[in-house]
Write a structure and sequence with these properties.
15% strand, Glutamate 5-kinase, transferase, globular, alpha/beta, Carbamate kinase, binds glutamic acid, two-stranded antiparallel sheet, glutamate 5-kinase activity, EC 2.7.2.11
């Protein structure tokens, strides 16, 4: 598929998954509000065009941490598993309330979906999750997804929401995954690479780890794109601070880095998704 066919495919994407990293939601109140105003405008625009949208959002731990700073009973919450799980439990409802306050302004009802690797182990869990997504999207509800951090243990975690957003894209059979991050895309010699048809070992070796409050970094974003490549689903890695970035990426296709997506679209079976998770658990993607 040449680039202009690919651009066309992206413009016509029907189901769009948008992944939002913790950094986008943990700046000053003004920065966070600016970001959310742009986001809701873009999502409203996509929905008005008849597209289905799913948001995968990090930020539970970051918002829980912010809250902990105002509570005298908590002195310097650290990074142990139990502290992070407690912070996620504190922050998750605040995160979703924040989304609700913004999306309700443009009349988009939202729903929260939290799940973890274990929920996909059983066939029933997988089917229920898939059906819930389908029902919400049929009803025109916007699912906001995160990992169920308070119950996931270190060994059984997706680990980072980049991989989670790839799994969600496979489950809902998305046409594109758009990852909003704090950099302009994948960089080579300081320059943004606008199109990366394949992710090779050289790109992975040059991708950095997390630089902000999240857990992923460029490495896990490229890993997520690699998972989706086989399914023919392209991944956009774009700077979430750019105005109307989602809309501009989908319509103009000239923002950030577009990875893969030139294969034939095909849906993944439950077994295939599980085997991806299995290999992720054995090989690991975080660093
Ligand atoms: N699920 C975690 C949270 O909501 C974030 C994981 C990540 O940074 O990718 O805080």
């Amino acid at each position: 598929m040449n680039r202009s066919d690919l651009d066309e495919k992206i413009r016509n994407a029907n189901t769009v998954v948008i992944k939002i990293g913790s950094a986008r939601l943990s700046g000053s109140e003004e920065e966070v509000n600016d970001f959310l105003f742009q986001l809701v405008a873009d999502v409203r625009h996509l929905r008005d065009q008849g597209k289905k949208v799913v948001v995968v959002s990090s930020g539970a731990i970051a918002r829980g941490r912010k809250m902990s700073e105002t509570l005298p009973a908590i002195v310097n919450a650290g990074d142990s598993l139990s502290e992070k799980q407690a912070l996620a439990a504190m922050g998750q409802n605040r995160l979703v309330n924040l989304y609700d306050s913004f999306f309700s302004k443009v009349n988009l009802p939202i729903a929260q979906i939290l799940f973890g690797v274990l929920d996909l182990e059983t066939g029933e869990g997988f089917k229920n999750l898939k059906n819930t997504f389908r029902q919400l999207l049929d009803w025109g509800i916007l699912p906001i997804v995160n990992e169920n951090d308070s119950v996931a243990t270190e060994e059984l975690k997706f680990g980072d929401n980049d991989v989670l957003s790839a799994v969600v894209s496979l489950i809902v059979e998305a046409d594109i995954l758009v990852i909003l991050t704090g950099v302009s895309g994948f960089l080579r010699e300081g320059k943004t690479v606008s199109y990366l048809p394949e992710v090779g070992s050289e790109e992975l070796a040059n991708a950095g780890g997390p630089s902000g409050p999240g857990t992923g970094g460029m490495y896990t974003k490229l890993k997520a794109a690699t998972i989706l490549k086989e399914a023919g689903i392209p991944t956009g890695i774009i700077d979430g601070a750019e105005k109307n970035c989602v809309r501009r990426f989908l319509e103009e296709n000239r923002l950030g880095t577009l990875v893969g997506g030139n294969g034939k679209n095909r849906s993944y079976s439950e077994e295939e998704i599980k085997s991806i998770l299995q290999s992720k658990r054995n090989g690991g993607t975080s660093r």
